[in-house]
Amino acid sequence: MKSALISPLLAGLLLLTGCAQPAAQAGGGGGGTIKAINHTKWAINHFSVNGQSGIDIIGPFQGGGGGCCFSVPAR
């Protein structure tokens, strides 16, 4: 009788611990959003900064093209 009660409780506990979120990594310099302004008469179809992609397609003489979330090293 006890094992019939304990087994589902242990299984539930294992499932709940498997869903735990990892702790955020401390340190780092921060982050921000990549934004671009196109000063040319041609569209920019794709851009990136240090491997972090911005949103595609900025029309001629337009601004925007922001891409979310890049990280900056502490130093």
- Residue windows where pLDDT falls under 50 for at least 5 positions: none
Mean pLDDT, as a whole number? Answer: 69
Give the class from helix and strand content and strand pairing: alpha+beta
State the share of residues found in helices, binned by percent: 10-25%
Number of strands: 4
Q: What is the distance, rounded to the nearest whole angstrom, between the alpha carbons of the first and last residues?
A: 60 Å
- Spatial extent as radius of gyration: 24 Å
What can be said about the biggest beta sheet?
A: 2 strands, antiparallel
In DSSP terms, counting alpha (H) and pi (I) runs of 4 or more, how many helices? 1
Share of β-strand residues: 25-35%
Oligomer: single chain
Overall outline: elongated
Order of helices and strands: HEEEE
What's this model, at a glance?
The chain has 75 residues and is an alpha+beta fold.
Describe this structure in words.
The chain is of the alpha+beta class and 75 residues long. It has a domain at 33-67. Helix content is 23%, strand content 29%. Strands 1-4 form a two-stranded antiparallel ribbon. The longest helix is centred in the N-terminal third of the chain and has 17 residues, at 2-18. The chain is elongated and about 75 Å long. It starts with a helix and ends with a strand. The model has no long low-confidence stretch (mean pLDDT 69).
